[in-house]
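Input (structure):
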Protein backbone atom coordinates (compact mmCIF):
# COMPACT_ATOMS: atom_id res chain seq x y z
CA UNK A 1 0.00 0.00 0.00
CA UNK A 2 1.52 3.35 -0.94
CA UNK A 3 1.86 6.31 1.42
CA UNK A 4 -0.99 8.21 -0.23
CA UNK A 5 -3.48 5.41 0.39
CA UNK A 6 -2.40 4.91 4.01
CA UNK A 7 -2.94 8.58 4.92
CA UNK A 8 -6.13 9.16 2.95
CA UNK A 9 -9.18 10.31 4.91
CA UNK A 10 -12.71 9.86 3.51
CA UNK A 11 -15.13 12.17 5.31
CA UNK A 12 -18.36 14.07 4.85
CA UNK A 13 -17.93 17.25 2.86
CA UNK A 14 -18.07 20.55 4.72
CA UNK A 15 -19.13 23.94 3.43
CA UNK A 16 -15.53 25.16 3.43
CA UNK A 17 -14.68 22.32 0.97
CA UNK A 18 -16.98 23.73 -1.70
CA UNK A 19 -14.41 25.99 -3.45
CA UNK A 20 -11.97 23.06 -3.77
CA UNK A 21 -14.73 20.84 -5.15
CA UNK A 22 -15.80 23.49 -7.68
CA UNK A 23 -12.16 23.85 -8.77
CA UNK A 24 -11.85 20.08 -9.25
CA UNK A 25 -14.99 20.00 -11.40
CA UNK A 26 -13.95 23.10 -13.35
CA UNK A 27 -10.62 21.44 -14.22
CA UNK A 28 -12.46 18.50 -15.82
CA UNK A 29 -12.18 18.82 -19.60
CA UNK A 30 -14.65 16.01 -20.32
CA UNK A 31 -17.51 16.76 -17.91
CA UNK A 32 -18.96 19.73 -19.77
CA UNK A 33 -21.14 20.76 -16.84
CA UNK A 34 -20.19 24.43 -16.98
CA UNK A 35 -18.31 24.32 -13.70
CA UNK A 36 -16.13 27.30 -12.89
CA UNK A 37 -13.94 28.83 -10.23
CA UNK A 38 -15.45 32.26 -10.87
CA UNK A 39 -16.34 33.67 -7.43
CA UNK A 40 -19.74 34.79 -8.76
CA UNK A 41 -20.71 31.10 -9.08
CA UNK A 42 -19.97 30.27 -5.43
CA UNK A 43 -23.57 30.96 -4.29
CA UNK A 44 -24.81 28.34 -6.79
CA UNK A 45 -22.40 25.75 -5.43
CA UNK A 46 -23.28 26.61 -1.84
CA UNK A 47 -27.01 26.33 -2.57
CA UNK A 48 -26.43 22.88 -4.07
CA UNK A 49 -24.26 21.88 -1.09
CA UNK A 50 -26.99 22.92 1.35
CA UNK A 51 -29.65 21.04 -0.63
CA UNK A 52 -27.52 17.89 -0.61
CA UNK A 53 -26.73 18.08 3.10
CA UNK A 54 -30.40 18.73 3.93
CA UNK A 55 -31.50 15.60 2.07
CA UNK A 56 -31.84 12.43 4.14
CA UNK A 57 -31.03 10.33 1.06
CA UNK A 58 -27.97 12.13 -0.31
CA UNK A 59 -24.44 12.26 0.99
CA UNK A 60 -21.46 14.22 -0.29
CA UNK A 61 -17.98 13.01 0.62
CA UNK A 62 -14.43 14.22 0.12
CA UNK A 63 -11.12 12.42 0.07
CA UNK A 64 -8.58 14.42 2.03
CA UNK A 65 -4.81 14.08 2.14
CA UNK A 66 -2.62 16.24 4.35
CA UNK A 67 -5.47 18.72 4.83
CA UNK A 68 -6.19 19.08 1.09
CA UNK A 69 -9.32 17.91 -0.71
CA UNK A 70 -8.11 15.65 -3.51
CA UNK A 71 -11.27 13.70 -4.38
CA UNK A 72 -15.01 13.63 -4.03
CA UNK A 73 -18.09 11.52 -4.64
CA UNK A 74 -21.78 11.74 -3.89
CA UNK A 75 -24.30 9.01 -3.14
CA UNK A 76 -28.07 8.97 -3.34
CA UNK A 77 -30.37 6.27 -2.01
CA UNK A 78 -33.46 5.31 -3.98
CA UNK A 79 -36.28 3.06 -2.86
CA UNK A 80 -37.75 1.54 -5.99
CA UNK A 81 -41.10 -0.09 -6.42
CA UNK A 82 -39.51 -2.46 -8.93
CA UNK A 83 -37.75 -5.32 -7.19
CA UNK A 84 -40.34 -5.33 -4.40
CA UNK A 85 -39.09 -2.13 -2.86
CA UNK A 86 -35.39 -2.72 -3.39
CA UNK A 87 -33.07 -0.04 -2.09
CA UNK A 88 -30.41 1.08 -4.54
CA UNK A 89 -27.49 3.47 -4.33
CA UNK A 90 -26.52 5.82 -7.12
CA UNK A 91 -22.93 7.02 -7.11
CA UNK A 92 -22.42 10.42 -8.70
CA UNK A 93 -19.69 12.98 -9.35
CA UNK A 94 -16.72 10.71 -8.67
CA UNK A 95 -13.67 12.89 -9.16
CA UNK A 96 -10.03 12.63 -8.18
CA UNK A 97 -7.85 15.70 -8.61
CA UNK A 98 -5.84 15.27 -11.82
CA UNK A 99 -2.43 15.30 -10.12
CA UNK A 100 -3.53 12.54 -7.70
CA UNK A 101 -4.90 9.97 -10.18
CA UNK A 102 -3.41 6.51 -10.46
CA UNK A 103 -2.70 6.17 -6.73
CA UNK A 104 -5.69 4.06 -5.68
CA UNK A 105 -7.76 6.96 -4.37
CA UNK A 106 -10.72 6.29 -6.66
CA UNK A 107 -10.79 2.65 -5.61
CA UNK A 108 -10.90 3.67 -1.96
CA UNK A 109 -13.74 6.12 -2.63
CA UNK A 110 -15.79 3.51 -4.50
CA UNK A 111 -14.97 0.98 -1.79
CA UNK A 112 -16.47 3.38 0.76
CA UNK A 113 -19.66 3.53 -1.31
CA UNK A 114 -19.91 -0.24 -1.50
CA UNK A 115 -19.23 -0.62 2.23
CA UNK A 116 -21.96 1.94 3.02
CA UNK A 117 -24.35 0.20 0.63
CA UNK A 118 -23.83 -3.18 2.27
CA UNK A 119 -24.30 -1.69 5.74
CA UNK A 120 -27.58 -0.08 4.60
CA UNK A 121 -28.95 -3.23 2.96
CA UNK A 122 -28.75 -1.83 -0.56
CA UNK A 123 -29.45 -4.39 -3.31
CA UNK A 124 -27.83 -2.58 -6.26
CA UNK A 125 -25.08 0.02 -6.57
CA UNK A 126 -25.07 1.88 -9.86
CA UNK A 127 -23.29 4.74 -11.53
CA UNK A 128 -23.05 6.40 -14.88
CA UNK A 129 -19.93 7.55 -16.66
CA UNK A 130 -19.48 9.85 -19.63
CA UNK A 131 -19.07 7.74 -22.79
CA UNK A 132 -15.77 9.51 -23.52
CA UNK A 133 -14.19 8.35 -20.23
CA UNK A 134 -12.78 5.05 -21.44
CA UNK A 135 -10.17 4.89 -18.67
CA UNK A 136 -12.94 5.35 -16.10
CA UNK A 137 -14.95 2.55 -17.70
CA UNK A 138 -12.00 0.16 -17.40
CA UNK A 139 -11.52 1.31 -13.79
CA UNK A 140 -15.15 0.59 -12.85
CA UNK A 141 -15.04 -2.79 -14.56
CA UNK A 142 -11.87 -3.70 -12.61
CA UNK A 143 -13.82 -2.90 -9.43
CA UNK A 144 -16.58 -5.33 -10.41
CA UNK A 145 -19.13 -3.09 -12.10
CA UNK A 146 -20.80 -4.44 -15.24
CA UNK A 147 -22.19 -2.58 -18.23
CA UNK A 148 -25.82 -3.61 -17.91
CA UNK A 149 -27.92 -0.70 -19.09
CA UNK A 150 -27.74 1.95 -21.74
CA UNK A 151 -28.34 5.41 -20.34
CA UNK A 152 -29.91 8.50 -21.82
CA UNK A 153 -29.87 12.10 -20.69
CA UNK A 154 -31.37 15.34 -21.87
CA UNK A 155 -30.09 18.83 -21.13
CA UNK A 156 -32.93 21.19 -20.28
CA UNK A 157 -32.75 24.94 -20.60
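Output (sequence):
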Amino acid sequence: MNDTVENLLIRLAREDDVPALAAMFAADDIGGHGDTTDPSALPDYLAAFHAITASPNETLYVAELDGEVIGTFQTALLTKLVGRGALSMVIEAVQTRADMRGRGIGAIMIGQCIEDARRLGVKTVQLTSNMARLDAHRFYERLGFEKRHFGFSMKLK
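Notes: The radius of gyration is 16 Å. Strands lie at 9-12, 58-65, 68-79, 87-96, 124-127.
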